[in-house]
Specification:
By secondary structure, the protein is of the alpha/beta class. 51% of the residues lie in helices and 12% in strands.
């Protein structure tokens, strides 16, 4: 602790001198090492194969008895007829009738969404049935769920998944070994129906209360795990396992391993991020596939948007995954059927039925380079430490440099006992600037509701009015340093103190975020650390280049670049003009959806961008746009 508590220049430590003289070089070296480390993570020499930590699961050790494949096919055909007969409505009366014929407790829940950005509301329904455990007092439960998607839905159909649920309910109803209640849930309107059902089941409200869930008449025990099915046809060759949840939460790795193990046992191939595991991960092709899979997972996790309905279970301490059916026409790939799907579901729930306590043995924080290899928190945190270490090195180097300059000035004065300074000079001058920029961030955070109401007065939809208002706020911030009134700029000779405090704030934010969403933290650090380290007051061409780089790091610009990259990946063959139009449309909708997700589900991505990243970007811009300062003159000792 001597480096922090004794900054006196006469007793300055070696570490302190190195930081003062070379903090920028050390920061860049740490950043580059962190970037290189990212490409090391997916290599099989660094990561590990997945394994079971919870021995009570006992996957695949019992003989499967599922024999309702003919009933599943009948349910599948009947459901498609119902969808064709009533294309604009969910066939919930038919589903209720099927569950009641099986002798289950069947209930329906109604819910309403009051759209937060417009004066409109939507309604929907959920249907669920419960098998009461014959060997327990309804203290624990499992959930098997699927969203209903009408024929005109942009997403793939889930008719086969619902048929598997009905067939599994018929098969499970006859068994006597269940120690947990089993809930069969069919939801409407994707995430909305699932969020409404979970809020009503647990008696809590999330977001801003836009969803008004109806009361649940029937309940079961405390939910231990859930599986969501997104299967359009029984003729599939792969099961794609989706794990990303709300705000980057992940299920326990044991549940992922359980699904993968039983999928392989029944003859289907496992997939993760839509990519099949490579047979030789230590080869060049295997490494590139693992790297692509890991980066795809990090990109999906960083958005905080669940990859399926399972992602809304995680905040309640419920481990859940989504199984998506994928069909690939390739030689040697056996197609599945309802018998195979039924056996997989049976095996999963018989293993979950063996659990004596909640999942806790395996990892909750990890990255997956394939369905069978994982990178634990102990392996990826060194990468993050190197990547974000530049914030700490720069903050400490500037702090000690400023203290050393102040103490050197004191040494020139005639005092009997020189007292070393512990706070850099002009520290209090930059604090009001930080308060102002965070107030601007709060304005951006509260802007969408006002912008939507203002746009409605001129018959402009929120998808247009909100980006316009956010863009106008950003342009106003760009002009503030150059206006006479109002004017926002750093006081003279304070840019180093401001940069030091900025690095401390970004280091604290990155450190906290890394414990819950490492992917989002990594992306933020990759873009914001170079601009934070490199900026300083400059003139001429250097200043123009820096300002251009800083503008590219604006949260809205980064969102636009991400939308453009995603559009190119999705539509690689369209022309430049169409690509530009679709990229702008994707950017506009992405901004709107992040705001709506914040209000309805509690997604923190927009909150983080408005309350943290936007104020930090303003500080970076103020430092870059401040006037160049003259060199400090040496203070000579006073003489009589």
């Amino acid at each position: 602790m001597g480096i922090l508590t004794d900054p006196n220049n006469r007793q300055r430590t070696v570490i302190g001198k190195v930081l003062i003289n070379h903090y920028q070089k050390i920061s860049w070296l740490s950043y580059i090492a962190g970037l290189v480390f990212i490409f090391v993570l997916p290599h099989p020499l660094y990561n590990n194969k997945t394994y079971f930590s919870e021995n009570a699961l006992l996957p695949g050790l019992v003989s499967g008895d599922f024999n309702e494949e003919k009933e599943a096919l009948r349910y599948f055909n009947d459901l498609r007829e119902e969808n064709a007969r009533y294309p604009g409505q969910a066939p919930f009366p038919w589903l209720e009738a099927q569950f009641k014929q099986l002798g289950l407790d069947v209930y329906r829940q109604e819910f309403t969404l009051n759209y937060p950005l417009a004066n409109s509301s939507f309604s929907g329904s959920n249907v669920y049935a419960i098998i009461r455990a014959p060997k327990s007092a309804s203290t624990e439960a499992l959930v098997l769920t699927a969203p209903h998607r009408p024929p005109n839905s942009p997403h793939q159909s889930t008719d086969a998944g619902i048929a598997v649920i009905l067939a599994a309910a018929k098969f499970f109803r006859r068994q006597i070994y269940w120690a947990k209640d089993i809930i069969f849930l069919i939801t409407e309107h994707e995430f909305l129906g699932m969020q409404a059902w979970l809020e009503a089941y647990h008696g809590v409200r999330y977001g801003d209360g836009s969803i008004v869930p109806g009361n649940l008449v029937g309940r079961a025990g405390s939910i231990q795990a859930a599986v969501n099915l997104e299967i359009s046809s029984p003729d599939i060759t792969h099961l794609n396992v989706k794990v990303e949840g709300l705000n980057g939460q992940l299920p326990n790795l044991d549940l992922v391993n359980l699904v993968n193990r039983l999928t392989l046992r029944e003859g289907l191939h496992q997939m993760f991020q839509g990519v099949e595991d490579h047979s030789k991960p230590d080869t060049y092709n295997g490494y590139t596939r693992s790297l692509k899979t890991m980066l795809n997972m990090m990109t999906s996790q960083a958005t905080g948007v669940p990859s399926g309905n399972h992602g809304l279970f995680h905040r309640f301490g419920i481990e859940a995954v989504t199984l998506e059916g994928v069909s690939i026409k390739r030689k040697g790939r056996m197609k599945g059927d309802f018998y195979t799907l039924g056996r997989i579901v049976e095996g999963i729930y018989r293993s979950l039925n063996n659990l004596l306590e909640r999942f806790h043995q395996s990892f909750f924080f990890y990255l997956l380079s394939s369905g069978g290899r994982y990178i634990s928190i102990g392996l990826y945190m060194p990468m993050f430490g190197l990547l974000a270490g530049g914030f700490i090195f720069t903050a400490l180097g500037l702090w000690f440099k400023l203290l050393a300059e102040k103490n050197d000035q004191k040494d020139g004065e005639i005092t009997s006992v020189p007292v070393p300074a512990l706070v850099p000079p002009n520290f209090t001058k930059v604090l009001p600037i930080f308060v102002i920029v965070h107030a601007l961030g709060f304005i951006a955070y509260a802007n969408p509701i006002t912008a939507a109401r203002f746009g409605a007065a001129f018959k402009i939809g929120p998808e247009d009015s909100i980006p316009i208002c956010l863009g106008s706020l950003s342009i106003m911030v760009l002009l503030l340093p150059f206006l006479n009134r109002p004017k926002l700029c750093l006081p003279p000779r304070t840019w180093e103190v401001a940069k030091c405090v900025l690095c401390l704030e970004l280091a604290a934010v990155a450190g906290c975020m890394s414990l819950c969403n490492i992917s989002l933290t990594t992306l933020v650090t990759v873009f914001y650390l170079p601009s934070t380290i490199a900026i300083y007051p400059a003139q001429g061409l250097k200043r123009c280049v820096m300002l251009l780089f800083v503008v590219l790091c604006h949260p809205l610009v980064l969102a636009g670049l991400a939308a453009g990259v995603d559009t190119v990946r999705t539509f690689p063959d369209i022309g430049l003009s169409k690509l530009t139009v679709r990229s702008l449309e994707a950017w506009r909708r992405g901004v709107l959806f992040s705001i709506v997700d914040s209000y309805i589900y509690g997604n923190v991505l927009y909150d983080l961008a408005a309350l943290v990243l936007f104020p930090c970007w303003i500080m970076i811009y103020l430092i870059c746009s401040s006037s160049q300062e003259e060199e400090n003159t040496e203070v000579k000792p006073k003489t009589d």
